[in-house]
Amino acid sequence: MKIRSTKMREAHKSSNGVGSFCSVLWDQQGEHIVTASSSDSSICIQDAFLPANPPKVVRHHRDGVTALALSPNFTCLASGSVDHSVKLYKFPGGEFETNITRFTLPIRTLAFNRSGTMLAAAGDDEGIKLINTIDGSIARVLKGHRGSITGIAFDPKSEYLASVDSIGTVMIWELQSGKTIHVLKGIAPVIGSDFSSMNIVSWSPDGELLAVPGLKNDVVMYDRDTAEKLFSLRGDHVQPICFLSWSPNGKYMATSGLDRQVLIWDVDKKQDIDRQKFDNRVTCMAWKPIGNALAVIDIMGKYGVWESAVPSSMRSPTENVPVLGSKNGHGLLFFDEEEENPSASGSLSDLGEDSHGESEPFSRKRLRKKHSYDDDWEEDSKEELELLPKAEPRKKAPHSHRDSSDNKRNELKSVAISAGQKMQEAFQPGTTPQLPGKRRFLCYSMLGSITAMEHDGYSHIEIDFHDTSSGPRVPAMTDYFGFTMASLNENGSVFANPCKGEKNMSTLMYRPFSSWANNSEWSMRFEEEEVRAVALGTGWVAAVTSCNFLRIFTEGGLQRHILSLDGPVVTAVGYKDELAVVTHASSPLPSNEQILEFRVFNTRNGTQPRRGRLPLTPGSCLSWFGFSEEGHLSSFDSKGVLRVFTNQYGGSWLPLFSASKLKKPEENYWVVGLNTSKLFCVICKSPDSFPEATPKPILTLMDLSFPLASSDLGAENLENEFIMNNMHLHRIQSTIEEMEAAGEDSSLLDDEAFNTEAALDRCILRLIASCCNGDKLVRATELVKLLALEKSVKGAIKLVTALKLPNLAEHFNSILEERLNKETTGSTIPASTEMKCDTSFNAQAALTKSHFTVESSKRLELESSPSQNLLAPSLTKKRSLEEPSKDVNIDTENARARKLEMARDFKNAFDLKNAKKLKDEKDKVDEVEDARKLENANKLEDGEDKNGEANKVTTQRPSNPFAKSSNNKQSASLFDSLKKKVKTDR
């Protein structure tokens, strides 16, 4: 056999002169070769076509790079280092993306899964980290190896992960459960602390074989499912094998040994077909994805390309690549979605002719699998092509041979789903599913949590309150029933479990936290039905069963009510006297929309105050249901939309939160509860949709906001605040009305209502300013009509005046005038008084146009008020001469009108100083009115003579018509003193 020679080029310099472990990779098109060395902190991206060109160097590690991996789509490069970090880069550009994880000790190996969504990393630390490449979260840590983990490989069928350590132990893990299904001890060489060569494991491209370096300078093949030793490749290696790599089609394998040899094997014939000896030990190899070439790199950092590694007379190593995917030499997955010709797979069909000795049983076993597969594939493909519109295929082809017919299977599956959509199963809010060996939540709410840890035959349950100072201290309990759901309030907790066979019936148990009597805990068992949801309230316990029964119990265990529901239950929650239940109203729509109905029961009154359809986002299902801290019914669907029920518009659901506008694609919100303005949730990283019980999850507060459209005003935050304040004000007013109707005192809510009105007015004023700046004057006029306080309207007038919008100020003045007229008309004031008030308002409006103030307007109103006309000489004389008795009525009416107007101003005033002034002036008017009444009464008693005398006195002293009255000296003196006092104050 002719001995070949490969030209080697230096990529990395060895710092210690002894050599170190180096890595090499090909890209998808064979255009670039990526190299790294554990003695060099840089990564080199070489040009495969022009190797003389300088490479692109990526330097982001602080120490040597020990591992490389390329994502299946060849757009992302991962590197691990002695500096304990794993980094991601864009490929082939080499731009740094992120530090995806860190270890406490050096990293030795990396591998992507077939889809590229998960990266496995391991090294000298205990455990293999499975990292979600979408968000960087650690999905799972696999622990079990005793030594440093030097090799990992994902099964191409995405079911298993194989790993090997420095002491020769191979472990096969089931990815779904994270458990080890096979542990093979001492089957690989022991490398100790010499990491210039490493043990490695590698799956065949079809996923049926696992290749491991053996103890006899060979490669041992193990069965995928049974981990049974099938055969080995043993030849001219005189020292242990340190690296191996499958060809893309799985027909060939390249192995390198400590003897500095590289051998090419025909796996089917179990014999080497070519070899080459190098100056230094080859630590890593990679088959070219397209073509017939093998890239190698030795311990001194020199790399080369072995062209025509497979003799040209034999089948190409890239011919008939399994469609499931094939592996290069570093465990990276390369797959192509082109259709495969199953009859040409070839490598396993030839075993009958060339097998000898120990390989015969394997050959028969493999041929049997192959034959069965071919029959299934041909039958399935024929059925799918001929019967596509009619039905699904009878058999499902193995995942390892997926071709273009998968699209047809998906179409058939979608047709089947649309023909009969699956109803959402019942769930308990705040409950997480059971994971083997992990603690779970039976209940998690704004009040506290109930956790359970499963052991052999029983569970350990703990109840914790978030506020330990207010909640009672509840001892842990042992659960032998297998409870899967629970509910919690301040007085106790309720638990339930589904049926687990005939002997283990569904059980409902209530456990109070404190009671004056012993043995206050109680339980109920159900025959021929099981509990699907539980709820807890003030003095009652509820359970909804599989028979669509709603069972309501008292706190002491008395079976109080049994109601039949209209459909299968989805969930149930309680709050004080209210019990809310969600059921299916009908089968889902073809668009996969669940049709749900909610009902709210009042357990104290035995009534049903609310009932209706539960809205959901199209294509979603209900993921959380409950009451807010204020008692408002709320729901949250799988599309991330939170809705809260309101009595507005006859009972409607308001969307108060939309995760699509806030969350990142890799975030999921697990809702815990909400209050007036915040949503309390736990943010989970995809693909997780719920948190783990340990460590305790961290609550995140999200602002509630309506999913508003993008406004041309650009003030979505203000508009959202405006709608939220309106909603809060409506709720408060509705509560006040309900309390007044029930004869309860609602004075505590009056201040809250006033504060909400003030906050709403402030928001409206800011919106008016935005409208003015955006030239939306009609919208500003609509907003000013919504202001609740008169002072706010005046503030709006002052605002638009400052913004130099006189036309808008006139509109606002008209609105204010119309409002005052309506208020005056609503009170019992004669028309003459209204006319004088209008005159007063016109004067005030004229003054407003020239930067009026609240003080000046009040002064103007005081000067033009009817009560001050008592001091006008001509008017006083005319009234005293012509109609002395009518003066009493007019003056009384004027004083009453002024009193009403001053009282209104006093109520609306915010400034305490102004309010005090208004009150003092009101008192003065009252005193003047009393004096006037007394004088007029004396006039009526004295008759015409006294009237004449009064007229004469009025003519002589018009400023004081009572000064010369002999019978009313006391009244005149009082009037004069009051008049002087008013003048002094003014």
TrEMBL record:
- What keywords are assigned to this protein? Nucleus, Repeat, WD repeat
Biological process annotations from GO: DNA repair; DNA-templated DNA replication; mitotic cell cycle
Q: Would I find Repeat among this entry's keywords?
A: yes
Quote the subcellular location field of this record.
Answer: Nucleus
Note the Gene3D superfamilies from the entry. YVTN repeat-like/Quinoprotein amine dehydrogenase
Q: Which Pfam families match?
A: Ctf4_C, Mcl1_mid, WD40_WDHD1_1st
Q: Under the GO molecular function aspect, what terms does this record hold? A: chromatin binding
Sequence ranges of the WD repeats: 58-99, 142-183, 234-275
The segment(s) forming the WDHD1/CFT4 second beta-propeller domain are: 425-708
Q: Where is this region: Disordered?
A: 339-410, 920-986
Q: Does the keyword Repeat apply?
A: yes
Listed under GO cellular component are: nuclear replication fork
- Provide the WDHD1/CFT4 helical bundle domain boundaries: 717-821
Which PROSITE patterns has this protein been placed in? WD_REPEATS_1, WD_REPEATS_2, WD_REPEATS_REGION
Matches recorded under SUPFAM superfamilies: WD40 repeat-like
| Protein name per UniProt | Protein mut11
Please report the organism this UniProt entry assigns to the protein: Nicotiana attenuata (Coyote tobacco)
Gene from which this protein is expressed: MUT11_1
